[in-house]
Design brief:
Elements (H helix, E strand, L loop, with lengths): L2 H12 L2 E10 L2 E11 L4 E5 L6 H8 L7 E6 L2 E2 L4 H4 L3 E4 L12 H11 L8 H10 L15 H14 L4 E5 L7 H16 L4 E5 L3 H7 L2 E6 L2 E6 L1 H7 L3 E7 L5 H11 L1 E7 L2 E8 L2 H13 L4 E6 L4 H8 L6
Parallel strand pairs: 3-8, 3-9, 6-7, 7-8
Antiparallel strand pairs: 1-2, 1-4, 4-5, 9-10, 11-13, 11-14, 12-13
Helix pairs in contact: 4-6, 9-12
């Protein structure tokens, strides 16, 4: 055994979630293709990727809901494939669509029921459950049958039931879907408290980049069933930091002048503002910037302002998954 293999095995042994060589195929389609990753205890990891990237398939395999074609998955010290029932004691999940609740029970009854499945006496958690329900904006609906709630309220109930189980590991698939702004902010705070104060591990899949950027310690990006990036938000954003500028000039430009600038300087995203005409441009160095200024002088317009554009997680994601508009 090589030193690197031994080191990787030690990391996996101490991890909250360890996935090694996970592959899931449907006929000729590889939904997940040889994915390996670990999630440390108390870590919040964001799982990103375009539709069809394999995120939900990976989560369902990790939960034992799908049998992988190949590979191994462990939650804590439990092998999910060989001891799925025991693994369920270590992990809870909310899957997209609010399907993991009983619609004929009230919100409060659902929360109590799912806590009981974990062996928790709900009578000892009355205040905790009330706080959980209230934090998601469900206090007034606590004694309403779920079937009578709106789609967003059903989503909140599913989230409350997932958190009420108090498992060491929690998977959340699109948890902010259908949440209002206040509830979404409350969820972000609760996720960080679960990790920072209770040491619980969260794997979060979401298209809401603001949520991922705010709460996650690390981001794993999937594309076509494979991991294309794995690192902190700052690392991913920094890797794609470019010399991008937002430029405003004093007057409109003829179409021919715009096309010349686009060919010469990678100019895009034209828009009119109260100050004039605005566009964005990516430049390789200072020389390219001066060349752009010279070309603008030839169009007989004045330069009003130049602002550096800082990339964010969404910019990095688009470049990693090749979804940038061209």
């Amino acid at each position: 055994m090589s030193v690197e293999t031994a080191r990787r095995n030690r990391r996996a042994a101490s991890a909250a979630v360890a996935i090694e060589g996970l592959t899931k195929t449907y006929g000729e389609v590889r939904a997940v293709d040889g994915v390996s990753l670990t999630v440390e205890r108390g870590e919040v990891v964001g799982l990103l990727g375009p539709n069809g990237a394999g995120k939900t398939t990976l989560i369902k395999c990790a939960l034992g809901l799908l049998v992988p074609t190949a590979g191994a998955i462990r939650v804590g010290e439990v092998d999910v494939r060989s001891d799925t029932a025991r693994a369920y004691r270590e992990v809870s999940a909310m899957l997209e669509g609010a399907r993991n609740v009983y619609w004929r029970l009230t919100v409060r009854e659902n929360v109590r029921f799912f806590a009981g499945l974990q062996g928790i006496d709900p009578r000892t958690r009355r205040e905790t459950h009330a706080d959980l329900i209230a934090s998601l904006g469900l206090a007034e609906q606590a004694d309403t049958p779920v079937v009578d709630l709106s789609r967003g309220m059903k989503q909140k109930t599913a989230l409350a039931c997932t958190l009420a189980r108090e498992t060491p590991v929690v998977f959340l698939d699109e948890p902010t879907l259908g949440l209002d702004v206040e509830a979404s902010l409350g969820l972000r705070q609760r996720i960080r408290r679960l990790a920072d104060e209770e040491g619980r591990t969260i794997v979060l899949s979401s298209h809401d980049m603001d949520v991922v950027q705010e709460v996650c310690d690390r981001v794993v990006v999937l594309n076509d069933g494979r991991v294309v990036a794995n690192g902190s938000v700052d690392d991913l954003v920094g890797a794609f930091r470019a010399r991008a500028y937002r430029v405003t000039v004093s007057a409109d430009l003829p179409l021919a002048a715009r096309e010349r600038l686009e060919r010469a300087h990678r100019v895009e995203r034209w828009s009119r503002t109260a100050s004039g005409l605005r566009f964005e441009v990516t430049l390789d160095d200072a020389a390219a910037f001066y060349a752009l200024v010279d070309d603008l002088r030839e169009t007989d317009v004045d330069l009003v302002s130049v602002t550096a554009v800082e990339p964010d997680l969404e910019d990095a994601f688009l470049q990693l998954t090749d979804r940038v508009d061209r």
